Amino acid sequence: MKTNIELQRDVMDELQFEPSVDASKIGVTAKDGIVTLTGKVSNYAEKYAASEAAARVAGVKAVTDETKVDLPQAHLRDDQDIAQAAVHALKWHVWVPQGAIKVKVEQGWVTLEGTVGFKFQQTAAEEAVQDLTGVTGVSNLINLKSAVAPSDLKMRIEEALKRAAELDAENIKVEVVGNKVVLRGNVSSWAERDEAERAAWSAPGVWTVDDRLEIAA
Q1: Is 54 exposed, middle or buried (0-12, 13-18, 19+ CB in 10 A)?
Q2: How far is it, in rounded angstroms, from Cα 100 to Cα 95?
Q3: For residue 178, what pLDDT is reported?
Q4: Do residues 117 and 142 lie in contact, with contact meaning Cβ atoms separated by under 8 Å?
Q5: Parallel, antiparallel or unpaired: strands 34-41 and 26-31
Q6: Domain architecture of the chain: domains with CATH
Q7: pLDDT over threshold 90, residue 91
Q8: What pairing do the DSSP bridges indicate for beta strands 172-177 and 137-144?
Q9: What percent of the chain clears pLDDT 70, i.e. is strictly above it?
Q10: In this structure, are strands 109-116 and 101-106 parallel, antiparallel, or unpaired?
Q11: Is residue 149 very low, low, confident or very high in pLDDT (cuts 50, 70, 90)?
Q12: 88 CA to centre of own chain
C-alpha cells in the first residue's frame, strides 16, 4: 500500500505527464487514498483532464477537485456567445437527441436540462459543451427516462461485466431495485471501477447507479 507521500508524488507525476494539463499551477495533497487538487486551470477542459489524470493513478480511491478556472483574457466570452456555441455543439453531436436539451449560461457556467433515454446521451451532452471556449463549469441536470425496464436487468449487467476483459466479474455483486443498480465488491483500480459502472449504465432501463465498489489495496 502506498504512503500518502508516494501517492502524492505519483499523482503529480501523472499530471506532469498529461499534455493537456499545466501541472505547475496545480497543488496535490493525498490522505488515505483521497487526493485533493487545488490551484488554477486555464479552462474547464483542463480542470476535467486534471481530475481524470489523478483518478487513473493506482491507489487513488477518490478525487476532490478544488481547482478554479481562471480564463485568460483571450478566452473570455459573453454568456450569449457561449449559449449559442453550446446549442450548436449539441445540435451537431450524433448521440444527443435533437431538441431534447435546454441550455442556460451564467457567468460562463453552463447548465444543461432536459430528458434523454440513456446515460451515454446524458454524458455526450456534457462532453459536447465542456471544451467550448469561455466555459468555466458545467451542471448536468439532464434527467434519464427509458421506456425499457426489463425484468432481466440484473442478468444483462452481470453478463456485461463478464464480457469486460479488464474486470474480474466474480468480485462484483449486482443488486437491482426498480431502475436503480447497486454495485458492491472489490476491484483492483479506479479504471476497473469506472469500467464496472459503465457496464451498469449501458443496460437499458437503468436510471441510477449506486457504485459502492471498493478499490483493493
Answers
A1: buried
A2: 11
A3: 80
A4: no
A5: antiparallel
A6: 4-69 (3.30.1340.30), 74-144 (3.30.1340.30), 153-215 (3.30.300.130)
A7: yes
A8: unpaired
A9: 97
A10: antiparallel
A11: low
A12: 22
pTM for this entry:
0.72
The three cell numbers of residue 164 are: 469486460
Crossing angle between the packed helical segments 119-130 and 44-55, to the nearest 10 degrees: 130
Long-range (24+ apart) CB contacts under 8 A made by 116-122 are: 116/142, 116/143, 116/144, 116/145, 117/144, 117/145, 117/146, 117/147, 118/144, 118/146, 118/204, 119/144, 119/201, 119/202, 119/206, 119/209, 120/95, 120/201, 120/202, 121/95, 121/96, 121/97
Amino acid at 90: L
Residue 181 CB neighbours (<10 A)? 24
Residue holding cell 436487468?
153
- Phi/psi at 150 (nearest 5 deg)? -65, 145
Which amino acid, residue 174? V
